[in-house]
TrEMBL record:
It is a multi-pass membrane protein. Residues 22-219 form the ABC transmembrane type-1 domain. This is Amino acid ABC transporter permease. It comes from Pantoea phytobeneficialis. Keywords: Amino-acid transport, Cell inner membrane, Cell membrane, Membrane, Transmembrane, Transmembrane helix, Transport. PANTHER family: GLUTAMINE TRANSPORT SYSTEM PERMEASE PROTEIN GLNP (PTHR30614:SF20), MEMBRANE COMPONENT OF AMINO ACID ABC TRANSPORTER (PTHR30614).
Length: 236
């Protein structure tokens, strides 16, 4: 049909590249999402202290990582840190190589980018927690940490799951930019295959389908969590 040729899919080498690409994409997305959620929760928790210098620091972090392209951040961590001395000697070649690997650079930059967006998502969730509920918890003797852990997080996490879904799905798709710094994820594997086979259209169609399936699984998983945590009046 339309002259499409997918016979290259039978080649074990290309199958191996695709499998490695999918696994690297999943690993990168899982690690970045986990760290981004932790950064988001910590940032939102710090904002509850209402300290001017702490609020200003978090706002600066959010503005810096939310308003700059994730690709630029990735290139910064991978190349700039090497230029200012974050290198080590390769025991085989004796050459200086980056101290932080391409995969680690991508994980750190995506985590910070996603973390900045998660802070905003969690902050909106915490702001939506009814003040009467917080006052009632304080009257029962909850400490600031206890209030955050046992009252704010359980309620806010239900409220902020819809915006958090958008953040995590966008973060998943942004992992494709890691191919620029030679992380062997899905887009990197695609480049290898179409440079080898010259079947660009077929490779891109396959990668498109794989991304649709993977992102749909992420959305389904978060939707399942939403339904599992849902209770009336708190958004999920």
């Amino acid at each position: 049909m339309f002259g499409l040729d997918f016979s290259w899919l039978l080649d074990p080498t290309y199958q191996q590249w695709l499998l490695q690409g999918v696994l690297q994409t999943l690993e990168l997305a899982a690690l970045s999402s986990a760290f981004a959620i932790v950064i988001g929760l910590l940032g939102a928790f710090c904002l509850t202290f209402r300290l001017a210098w702490l609020d200003a620091s978090i706002e600066l972090f959010v503005e810096l990582f939310r308003n700059t392209p994730p690709l630029l951040q990735m290139l910064f961590f991978y190349f700039t840190l090497t230029q200012i001395g974050f290198t080590t000697e390769d025991p085989v070649t004796g050459l200086q190589v980056p101290l932080i690997s391409a995969f680690m650079s991508a994980t750190v930059s995506l985590s910070l980018f996603g973390g900045a967006l998660c802070i905003e998502a969690f902050r909106s969730g915490f702001d939506a927690v009814p003040k009467a509920t917080l006052e009632a918890a304080r009257s029962l003797g909850y400490t600031r940490w206890g209030l955050f852990r046992h009252v704010q997080v359980p309620i806010a996490s239900r409220i902020c799951l819809p915006p958090l879904t958008n953040v995590l799905t966008n973060l998943f798709k942004t992992t494709s930019q890691a191919s620029v710094i030679t992380v062997p994820e899905l887009m990197y594997a695609a480049g290898q295959i179409y440079n080898d086979t010259f079947r660009t259209l077929e490779v891109m169609l396959l990668i498109l389908v794989i991304y649709v399936v993977l992102v749909s699984l992420v959305v389904w998983l978060i939707g399942w969590v939403q339904r599992a945590l849902a209770y009336p009046g708190y958004g999920a």
